User: Fold this.
Amino acid sequence: MHFNYFDIHSHLNLSSLSENTDEVIKKMEEKEIGTITVGTDFETSKKAVELAEKHDFLWATVGLHPNDNISEIFDYEKYKELAQNNKVVAIGETGLDYFRTVDAELQKRQKEIFIKHIELALEINKPLMIHSRPSKGSMDAYEDVIEIVKNYPGVRANFHFFVGNIEIAKKALESGFTMSFDGPITFSRDYDDVIRFLPIESIMAETDAPFAAPAPYRGKTCEPWMVEEVVKRIAEIKQLPLEEVSTAMVENAKKFFNV
Assistant:
């Protein structure tokens, strides 16, 4: 299937977009844009799969977000059953969030549930969609994710909404990770050096819709078709033709997620 752009991480299953899903999906279809709808708990994971089954340009992930693991117990077998659907292309979003969670016991719980996601990803041979948010002024969550994954050879993973520095990017590359970028790169220069450093084959584009709309749509509800602005900015930063970068972003997504 042909795509002009591919948004590897969106939340069509969350209320801001699910209220007018038909309109959002119609616009994606018109613009030839594919996306992966990401689960953050069991119910949103089910919704992601249901949406993906209805459209050949949508896929899904299933997982329990690290900030949602207090209100839900991770039921490995339930997630495994859901994850075996052929429209599910990754496990997550999962990972570690030390920005919102500073309690040591809760961070320990995040690690335990993250490991369960890793084991599930290995069992069904699908990559991880990783949420990693370090505490302020630190790269601690990234460091811990990378150290944990080292214990599980064969894991494939993407750092979604990557905000790490070049040192972390180097470690991520050594681990075979890819990294994806969102709307903030269109209005903040904080990401430029890392994007210049990374090889194009290790980069993917996303929106995290309905959050973090790119310029010129800041302040509006973000939608997957807005990923075009993210790709444009990656091309500008890397000083490459837009067509070359947009093609690379689509091919990277197809290869990584086997879509």
Remarks:
- The CA atoms of residues 122 and 155 lie 6 Å apart.
- The radius of gyration is 17 Å.
- The chain has ten helices and eight strands.
- The longest strand covers residues 88-97.
